[in-house]
């Protein structure tokens, strides 16, 4: 059922549903409210929050945006019933049982000044206003330190610095937040801390036009850089972000670690270009180039590699022994092959002799033949 109430003090109000239940209200110190974009926001009524007026004594409540003209009225309450005004559809605004204005979905256009008029029972109208600003929280709750390897803890990371480095730059950033945060660098040491002079930059960030304005448009990016003149093993640094967008403050702890040069790795194969003189009066270069090259390791494994330069992996004493034994092995192999060949020939002749048949002894009678 639609009910219409008229009072000479208040504008005409259409009332269609009861007041909603209470909600959580968080006010800033200076009275400015920061509402998160894309979330449900609450604009508090200071007179009720401070209990200057009891919620049970309120007969009527009106919320406006920008001014207190009739066309600026957003929503109203009268004797327990709430209704949107000026053609605003239901579900955009609401009033809870503390008479706070509820914004169901905070957008960039919600920033501004909200005015209210409150009529206590048997008293005159009270008026007031609340400043509302947007807040955009960072996607990562901690400052990001450039070139810092994140540790197991999300707010702790490590930066590796050359052992001979005299100056090192540390830069931390906080991107796409609103309002802009303040970044500062602090050096921690045993028994205390020191705030360092940092170079800070703040720039606005406007995402492409196709990005929803209710989410990340008109945000800020802040960076802060310092120079570390020397790296002490017992020193740690902290980048701290301070501001409404990060819930007062948040920090990232940075640990600097010196990197020391490692000795060059040496393989088991030694390269030598010197000439070794052996007892056989032959001079051998340990690097031999062959058309078909065999690569040897110390266990005697051989792999054929075409056209490569092979560097011998044997010591000089081992080379001498190999060159002395090789002719003897070749001679022995030659004698063995000769003996085998002679033996085969002899066996062949003997076999042919055994299998040969004797010619028959035929006698001819010459007289008969004539």
From TrEMBL:
Compositional bias (Low complexity): 259-271
Record flagged with keyword S-adenosyl-L-methionine: no
InterPro entries: Ig-like_dom, Ig-like_dom_sf, Ig-like_fold
Domain of life: Eukaryota
Entry keywords, A to Z: Membrane, Transmembrane, Transmembrane helix
All residue ranges annotated as the Ig-like domain in the record: 143-257
Transmembrane annotation, as ranges: 322-349
Biased composition (Basic and acidic residues): 275-299
Gene3D superfamilies for this protein: Immunoglobulins
Region (Disordered) location: 258-301
Protein name (database record): Ig-like domain-containing protein
Species annotation: Patiria miniata (Bat star)
